[in-house]
Write a structure and sequence with these properties.
The chain is α+β, with helices and mostly antiparallel strands. The protein contains 16 helices and 35 strands. The strands form nine sheets. Strands 13, 14, 15, 18, 23, 24, 31, 34 and 35 form a nine-stranded mixed β-sheet that branches. The protein has a six-stranded mixed β-sheet with strand order 3-2-1-4-11-12. A four-stranded parallel β-sheet has the order 6-5-9-10, sandwiched between helices.
């Protein structure tokens, strides 16, 4: 291979690699076992294996990775010891939060403890007005006293969040200078840098999480860079962030909070590009791993975005791909509730002890065990024979559940899968129908190790007619990292009406953001021909409390008001004619476009019959029972020749189950396109 581009996705069980030859378009995929104690170790192992695959690390010209390091740190509470300095009277904003109660009638729900304990939430006299004017000057002696307290307590990071600093960062910056001088080596996070937007709770909460993550993320990125250099890669490394773009390692060090949805966002980006290339711009992504199912909506080739999200119970605000995550994966455990009802997940057997059939000590019945019992998954071995499977252990685990509910082992396994599919279908409706989208034009794109196995069942449950199984679905997130653009958002809070002189102020603020964005693109050495700027406004009707996202050039007030009305109609089902519209936040997304677009794959010789590697008995449902179905080897399936279900398609990273009543074909990009023979509408 010549100049190559590498995308890496660091997962809990496997670290996935996708390698693209920038000259020929040839793409390869492979996996190595993850190393949770130090994720960078698995990356080094994978790069060290380049030579045996005919690759040279010195040929790498682009190097990006997605990681769950930040998310796992929050979940496991492994961040650095953090202090908070805030405006006098506001130390408890972090703990008070908002009055939203998603579990209003559940008396057992407890909010997680704040990331900064109350003794380390310190106040200082200062005050800015809502226009950024100084009302009370910064008490610098108070800042020095706070720095001394932080030093005595041994904090590793300090978050600074003052009222209205998004309008004027002068007090935060001065306080940061004082603390940095008194506490050299301590990480400092300013809310005016991390999130220069109004709403003090979200701004302070996001800034605190950023500070909390900085010490450990800095260490991880150091090891990541050292190991990749040691392995022979000289290319500048990038990390994917939650909005689906790539950022430099230095940016990731300073803003680790932006990586909290790194892995799932990469999968959505990859799916959108694969879908557009294959002429499917409207897609529901369906990513099923061992522990969770991630779903997202892509309309007209663009993923849906959100700005507010909880991560392990903590509120963060930054542009993110709108991914709905539920606890349903191959390792999800089947159990009985107090009334004897069968439930599946969110508890997971994880990689260790894992499903019972995997022989790593697991004894609980999981979704994977149910599929092995029904022989939808290979009952002998997975990963092209590299991973032995113990079907007797799966039968024993599922049989224990069957005995409790008084059903046969097959019916119980089928029931476990049906319950999991119903849960997954609810997640799909949450990102589509619940937000005003008609599912009719959408296709379901299934990836992750367990996505293709359940995709047709989920499509039938939700009424989707088309299912897309991309090439090497188990490494889609790594492909997404590889194909992502380099991006960064620049934001300015306005809260101004879309009219008259206010519009001139909005245009002026937009021009200022464009200058910042172009300076950043220059600093990132993005060539002129690969640069782009995207305009985004977060707006609302006057009197509303929350805003919605509107993309596109801000040409005239009338044009923007019309586009906002249409966006409002999509989200809420109505629009208010002649009601004042106000822009809350302006954003410019600076984009450095990635390399070449997706290429078609070489055609496979032979016929579909030649791709059949055997047959096996598969349990379809209680009415049909067991049927003998063909087993196809995916790499041997030719393009354009149609085949019919029921069928099993096996490959290294996944298994696809094709239902009776479905037919399929392989397209020019190597995707398997499944559709129901008759329109079920």
């Amino acid at each position: 291979m010549g100049n190559i581009r590498v995308g890496i996705d660091v997962g809990g069980t496997f670290t996935d690699f996708t390698v693209l030859d920038d000259e020929t378009g040839d793409m390869r995929h492979f996996k190595v076992s993850s190393t949770p104690h130090d994720p960078s170790e698995a990356i080094e192992t994978g790069i060290a294996g380049f030579a045996e695959r005919g690759l040279q690390a010195s040929d790498v010209i682009h190097f990006g990775h997605g990681t769950t390091v930040a998310t796992n740190m929050v979940i496991e509470r492994r961040g650095g010891k953090t202090g908070l300095l805030t405006t006098e009277g506001f130390r408890d904003v972090l703990e008070i939060g908002r009055q939203t109660r998603p579990d209003l009638f559940d008396m057992s729900v407890r909010k997680p403890d704040p990331l900064v304990v109350r003794p380390l939430r310190l106040e200082v006299a200062e005050r800015l007005g809502p226009a950024g004017e100084i009302i009370v000057p910064l008490d610098e002696a108070g800042v020095e006293a706070a720095a001394e307290r932080f030093k005595q307590e041994g904090v590793e990071a300090v978050a600074i969040g003052f009222l209205h600093s998004y309008r004027n960062p002068v007090h935060e910056r001065r306080a940061g200078e004082i603390i940095s001088k008194r506490l050299p080596g301590v990480f400092i996070s300013l809310s005016s840098d991390v999130l220069p937007e109004f709403r003090e709770y979200e701004r302070i909460s996001t800034t605190v999480m950023n500070a909390y993550l900085m010490p450990r993320m800095d260490g991880y990125l150091d090891r990541f860079m050292t190991r990749s250099r040691k392995a022979g890669i000289e290319a500048k490394p990038y990390t994917i962030h939650s909005n689906g773009g790539l950022m430099s390692t230095e940016t990731a060090r300073n803003y680790p909070v932006r990586t909290c949805l790194s892995g799932p966002a990469a999968g959505v980006v990859g799916a959108s590009l694969v879908g557009k290339a294959a002429s499917f711009p409207d897609i529901i992504t369906y990513d099923v791993g061992g522990t969770s199912t991630d779903v997202a909506l892509i309309a007209n080739g663009k993923p849906a975005y959100s700005t507010d999200r909880d991560v392990a119970g903590y509120s963060i605000r930054c542009p993110m791909v709108d991914v709905n995550v539920i606890g349903a994966g191959g390792g999800s455990i089947a159990w009985l509730d107090d009334a004897g009802g069968l439930k599946v997940g969110p508890q997971s057997a994880a990689a260790v002890p894992g499903p019972a059939a995997y022989g790593k000590g697991g004894t609980d019945a999981t979704i994977s065990d149910a599929n092995i019992v029904l022989q939808r998954l290979n009952p002998v071995a997975l990963l092209d024979g590299a991973m032995p499977v113990d079907r007797e252990a799966a039968l024993k685990a599922v049989g224990a559940v069957a005995e409790k509910i008084g059903r046969s082992v097959e019916d119980t396994a089928w029931g476990i899968i049906r319950i999991a599919v119903a849960n997954m279908a609810r997640a799909i409706r949450a990102v589509s129908m619940d937000k005003g989208h008609d599912l009719t034009p959408f296709a379901l794109m299934a990836f992750g190790g367990a996505g293709p196995l359940h995709s047709s069942l989920v499509a039938a449950e939700t009424g989707l007619n088309t299912v897309i199984i991309p090439e090497s679905p188990g490494t889609m997130c790594a492909r997404g990292v590889l194909l992502s653009d380099v991006t960064r958002d620049f934001v300015s809070t306005q809260i101004k009406r879309v009219q008259g002189e206010s519009w001139l102020d909005i245009r002026s603020a937009l021009e200022g953001l464009e200058v910042q964005a172009l300076e950043w693109l220059e600093a990132e050495t993005i060539p002129d021909e690969k640069r782009a700027l995207q305009h985004i406004a977060e707006a609302r009707y006057a009197g509303q409390n929350h805003e919605i996202r509107v993309e596109g050039i801000l040409s005239t007030p009338e044009d923007f008001a019309a586009r906002f009305a249409e966006a409002h109609r999509v989200v809420y089902g109505y629009a208010l004619n002649d009601h004042p519209v106000e822009i809350v936040n302006l954003r410019i997304q600076a984009i450095g476009h990635a390399g070449r677009p997706l290429q078609t794959v070489p055609a496979v010789a032979g016929t579909m019959k030649d791709a059949i590697v055997g047959e096996r008995e598969v349990y379809i449902d209680p009415q049909t029972g067991w049927l003998t179905v063909p087993v196809y080897k995916r790499g041997s399936m030719p393009q354009a020749e149609r085949f019919s279900g029921p069928a099993i398609i096996e490959e290294l990273t996944s298994t696809t189950y094709v239902l009776p009543g479905q037919s399929g074909v392989v397209d020019a990009y190597g995707n398997i396109i499944l559709s129901f023979v008759k329109d079920r509408a």
